[in-house]
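request received
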Amino acid sequence: MNPEIIRSLQELLPQIQGYIYPNEIEIHWGLLIVVYPYITGVVAGAFILASLVKVFNVKEVQPLYRLSLLTALAYLLVAPMALVSHLGHPGRFYEILLTPQTSSAMAMFGFVYAWYLMAVLLLEIWFVHRTDMIDMAENSTGATRLLYRALSLFSKDKGERAVAFDHKALKVITIVGIPSAFLLHGYVGFIFGSIKANPWWSSVLIPIVFLFSAIVSGIALVVLLYMIITPLTGGKINMKCVDKAVDFLFYAVIVDFSLEMVDFIHRVYQSEEEIKILSEMVMSKLFLSLIIVQVLLGMLVPLLLISLTKIFKKRFSLNEDMRKMVYFISVILIQFGIFATRWNVVIGGQMFSKSFRGLTTYKMEFGGIEGLLYAIVLLALPIAILFVLMKVLPPWKELREEGETGTEALGGAGM
Amino acid sequence: MNGRRSFLRGFFAVLLSGGAIEGVMKLFPSKALAKETARTGKWYGYGVSVDKCIGCARCMDACKNENNVPKEPFFVRTWVERYITRKNGQTTVKAIAPGDEATPEAASDRTILRSFFVPKLCNQCANPPCVQVCPVGATFQTGDGVVLVNEKTCIGCRYCIQACPYGARYLHPKTHTADKCTFCYHRISQGQLPACVEVCPTQARIFGDLNAAASPMSRFLRMNKIHTLKPGLNTEPKAFYANLDGEVR
Ligand code: SF4
Ligand code: SF4
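response:
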């Protein structure tokens, strides 16, 4: 018997309100499962930002293209860690792939993940960087040379036809990639949305809400990274690019916000038997994380800030530094807001009893696998991976490109 | 142009004929969508007479001993709830713990309108959401209708715990796998009764083959007005309650 589990459950007892089923004291999906949809959200969002450049030819955000792809990859590599380490038997994870039960949404994880990693992200990144890697192999010696040789899969052809093929391949991959990104995050939403036992989750809108919040978090994060990395490496922030990206962000937040409002109004209007306990939960246990952080700080304040810059940019030609600061604050707030969204869905869904008569509580541990420390490590890890990726496949040239005069992503960087 | 139009026409014809729908439905577990088919052979069910339960909690003790359920109160395969409805219409519920005195409220408490006990356990749903969501097939349904967990393949993802609408599952702190009531499968397959049924002093708990017309279980179903818990969820529980109060969820 694990005395630690018992002790921590004992501590929760006084905080339980009303009646809950005896097996419900423990919250089964903790912080790690909050981190998981957050991370996959960033992946999907960053990829969709990259697709804006490729498919819709939004030239202004070209400087963010490679950064978004690498960010997506860095986060994708960490996503399964969050999922696997929360299992009671992490060592049996492969069972999901060997004996998957097709009726289970979770069983699809491995396949969706592998598809997205292998067929979309890695391929796209490879084609984008192929000629670069050949160049780098040529300009270096020893182990580095070997590394780039291997990374480019020993291709050497930089001829016109090969480059044209790269272009074509990229188009195809992006077109396959967008629905795949939707699938990746839509299915994470589906894992929750399909649980009919839980009225907080069980909603057809959940996958769609997840998707739009994913787009929001991805764009916001890439913009944030861009605004931090560029000056650090001695570049100058391209405001045309940031303005445009924030434009997209703005509309994505509006759609996300409206969807969540529709969901909320729908629940209240239908007012089914669980409505009492849910509103009690929102007003007490989730007040801070839902009303204050998610809605107010994470959505309304950034929306207000960004719309102000939109209005005053024209009128008083709001100066760049001011805009930069407003954007910077907004994207940080949005990150917190989206993280709170994940928290409210995952933890909130387990705080009320399925008897609809009571509320339990979640106590965050600090150490241990389900603890805060490990979650922070998981959240920081993608940044470290991104750092390495940027060393190997430098996006600098493109990052510093003038958005509008910038040549086509491939051609420009490949020469 | 013509080609496309005829293609579309064909496409919609297939859609309307239901062929496509049938194809899509094949993707889903058939049991989730089909009406319960007539079953032959044993099909186990459980009965609870709410008005017979006196809240002595012997069943809980018996279950814990029989099935290696941790002794601590946070992990149970079966439990008993006590409902007290007062004259002002308010109902309070509590799960009783083994060793609780059965009727602490004084008989003279005039504010109490009615009070009763409700034993709970896994409903052994005929259409179990826990089986549907398990990513590795560790939770499965036997041919005689009992939902079991294979602790050798369960990965401890706890998806089934989330999916069970009745709070019937928990994660075993020692095996780190999901656990729940098995109807004492090791006993019933030997022709014995589940431990909780055997110890119940008032016979509030009844067990048997739903397909055997002469069994005490069938008699129980015939003689009582029967309800199940959360019928709206279409889980088709096989724990049947007699004299169930509408308050109980
Ligand atoms: S009551 Fe819960 S654990 Fe039991 S079969 Fe139904 S869904 Fe599964
Ligand atoms: S905890 Fe075990 S039995 Fe439950 S869904 Fe996960 S693998 Fe299946």
